[in-house]
Design brief:
Elements lengths: L4 E3 L6 E6 L10 H9 L3 E4 L9 H4 L4 H15 L5 E7 L1 H10 L6 E7 L10 H12 L5 H9 L14 H17 L7 E6 L8 H9 L5 E6 L9 H17 L1
Helix pairs in contact: 1-9, 3-4, 4-7
Length: 248
Amino acid sequence: MHTPTYQKYKGADVAVLFIHGFMGGPNQFTDLEEAVYEAGCTCTSVLLPGHGAGIREFVKFGVGDWQRHLQDEIDKIKRDHKQIVLVGHSMGGLLALGASLNKENHIAAVVLLSTPLKIYLLNLRSLWFKLRLLRFPKDNEVRAAYIKSNSITLSKLFFYPSLIKPVIQLYKLIRRTKKHLSDVFVPVYMFHSKNDETTAYQSAALLYEGLCNTQRTAFALDKSWHAFYSADERKLIQDQLIVLIEQI
């Protein structure tokens, strides 16, 4: 079951807010949240509207709802913390970049995990990776990571066409994000897998080029997928997140 989390660290000035992606959920951030809390920061994660349920509930909401929900969470956090670090996976990274443009949000930095500016649809290599994923047993570590991260109950096939509208909204969000990359003024850390079967690796270069007016640091991952991170590369993300926090 996916539920939002909140662990307040007494006396902490910095809070780290984790934002999942399209059809994702907060469960994928458990280990990162623990590391952040042990480092002396408040940590929290959101469950975006429509997530944590079935497709019929999911399609009732869209980008505007997710942006407003994120802003509401930021407003709550900034009452008790001087600075906020946003960590977004996939679409969550797009939402994080948008929220960082508001100087009143007290955003100190943004961390992007597999954030898309270009998405694979009919790419043959991408389709091969997805077919491999379906053939993995449920206890396989890659498939287990995807099951853990997914918060939408996949019901009958005749509901799938209803996903067209939210997918179109996602593409619109990508286009809007591209237009405002040069307006981002907070430091950005980017992690992207070369084997990402959903978000084209080209997205990393597009993000780096577009974020031309702020400090940005990019890490290429060789072993990970879109929602699965190998143990050593997961440790890299965790360590770099702590380094970033210590520099704030």
